[in-house]
Amino acid sequence: MPSTWSATRSATGPPEPGVAGSRVFAYGTLEVGELVEALVARRLPGEPAVLRGWARSMVRGTHHPGIAPQAGSETTGTLYSGVDAAALAALDRFEGELYERREVEVEIAGGARRGALVWVVRAELRHVLTGEPWDRERFVADHLREWLAGVSGPWQR
């Protein structure tokens, strides 16, 4: 099955007019609605989605994951919609220099495909990915409170 990754360039600046720019695929800490709400100062509607051709693993020395291209892999996550330019800017600041924003295509229930933006580990920094799986429940139980204490949204304008 071919990868659903649809872009080879990173997205920069505000989203271009169109549907993909209003959607974000989250596969790690941004799947935690409470954290997203603290970052962008509102609740974003979301639904389960899958990104094919990308593998999620822990970032060395941290409590969060990253993704990198890997044939045959898939990453489950949440597809948020209604992401405006202000929310996207806050999420860009939160993600920082380890990641770059990319345009991708994800699959939602029933097999429908949707364009979205996602933050992936920059190619030159992928050596920090450990290959170890990320555990969302462990993050929430052990680290979410600490992360929320460091958030003042929309995230550090």
Can you walk me through this structure?
The protein is of the alpha+beta class. It has a single domain (20-142), classed as Gamma-glutamyl cyclotransferase-like (Hypothetical upf0131 protein ytfp, Roll), CATH 3.10.490.10. It is built from four helices and five strands. The chain has helices spanning 33-40, 85-95, 136-142, 144-149, and strands at residues 24-26, 46-58, 65-80, 99-107, 113-121. The strands form two sheets. The protein has a three-stranded antiparallel beta sheet, with no helix packed on it. Strands 4-5 form a two-stranded antiparallel ribbon. The longest helix has 11 residues, at 85-95. The protein is globular. It starts with 23 loop residues before the first strand and ends in an 8-residue tail after the last helix.
Key features?
157 residues; alpha+beta; Hypothetical upf0131 protein ytfp; three-stranded antiparallel β-sheet; two-stranded antiparallel sheet; 5 strands; globular; disordered N terminus; disordered C terminus
Please specify the SSE layout and strand pairing:
Elements: E1 24-26, H1 33-40, E2 46-58, E3 65-80, H2 85-95, E4 99-107, E5 113-121, H3 136-142, H4 144-149
Antiparallel strand pairs: 1-3, 2-3, 4-5
